[in-house]
Structure formats: C-alpha cells, structure tokens
Automatic annotation (TrEMBL):
The keyword Secreted does not apply. The gene is Stx8. Residues 41-68 form a coiled coil. InterPro entries: T_SNARE_dom. It comes from Upupa epops. This is STX8 protein. Residues 145-180 form the T-SNARE coiled-coil homology domain. The keyword Coiled coil applies. It comes from the Eukaryota. PROSITE patterns: T_SNARE. Keywords: Coiled coil.
Length: 180
C-alpha cells in the first residue's frame, strides 16, 4: 500500500525542518570560527520560507480532507496536532536563525551557567531518551512502527472486550424483556 500523500508531505516537511536545524548549527559553527556564513544564511532563509509554504499546504490539504470526510474527525485532530507541532518548530527555527547576533561573551559565559537564559538556541538539542539514543532514522521509524503495532494489538483486544460486553448487555436486555 502506497503511503498517503499528506503523510509523505508531512515527513518531507519534518525532514526539511531537521535540515534547517543542522544548517543553523553549521552556520553558528562557522561564526564561532570566524568564517563567512553568508551563503548558509541565504540557504537557511529560503529553506525557512519553503518550510512555511509546506506547512500551509499541509493545512490546506488537511482542511480539504476533513471537509470532504476523506478522513475521520479524530484523524483530522491528530493531523492538526502534527501541523501545530510543525508550526512550533518553524517558530523555534526562525528564532534560532535570527539569534545569530549573540555576543561571543554571552556564549562563553553561558557555558559555565548552564546555557543562555533567553531560551534554547537550538530546539533540536533537547535531551534524547535512553530508548532512542544512538538509533538512526530507520531504526527510529522501525521502533515507531513496532509501537504502533503493539497499540493496534491492544486496540483489537479492547475492541473484542467491548463487543463481548455489548452482546452481554443485549442478552441482559432480552432477559429483562422476557421477565417483564
């Protein structure tokens, strides 16, 4: 089964956000070494614009899919949360990109105090959990797929229990009708 276009576009947008974060890190590294980062700034700026356009496309596709009932309302809400997370990432990346003017003294002093107090300069440097540390992109995707399969199995079990309870409720109702 081919992946759904919306999910493919979402994955592409997430990958673009990751690329932008890496380029911002590279630009910051160049600035620390005194090298020119003008070319990277242009690339980052256009990539941020491209990410914003992709997010807008995802919003439009989602709105269309929900309004034509191609997906359920629950799935629409889930996807809306994904889009909101992407928007947050975009804002963080934008802030990180515009944060290029940090004085070197602030950066040096932040090493001893635990970081710049204005906020996290790179949103992708958050602490990684033990279960995902050291895993590559494909490994993470496989782990995510395994978790989804476990959740599906749990939902199947829950579904069978609820079906059984429904039948019991119907039988109880029939018995009450007979007794009355």
């Amino acid at each position: 089964m081919a992946p759904e276009p919306w999910l493919s576009q979402y994955d592409a947008a997430c990958q673009l956000a990751q690329d932008i974060a890496e380029r911002i890190q590279e630009r910051n590294r160049y600035q620390r070494n005194g090298e020119s980062s003008a070319k990277l700034n242009v690339i980052i700026r256009s990539s941020l614009q491209n990410l914003r356009e992709k997010i807008d496309q995802l919003k439009d596709l989602l709105l269309r899919a929900v309004s034509t009932r191609q997906i359920t309302q629950l799935e629409g809400d889930r996807r809306q949360n994904l889009v909101d997370d992407l928007l947050t990432r975009h804002k963080q990346l934008q802030a990180s990109y515009q944060n290029e003017g940090l004085e070197p003294d602030v950066n040096r002093s932040s090493l001893m105090t635990g970081g710049v107090k204005r906020g996290v300069t790179n949103p992708w440097l958050l602490e990684e959990s033990e279960e995902t540390r050291g895993l590559g992109f494909d490994d993470l995707r496989q782990q995510q797929q395994r978790i989804i399969e476990e959740q599906d199995a749990g939902l199947e079990a829950l579904s069978s229990i609820i079906s059984r309870q429904k039948l019991m409720g119907q039988e109880i109702g029939n018995e009450l009708d007979e007794q009355n």
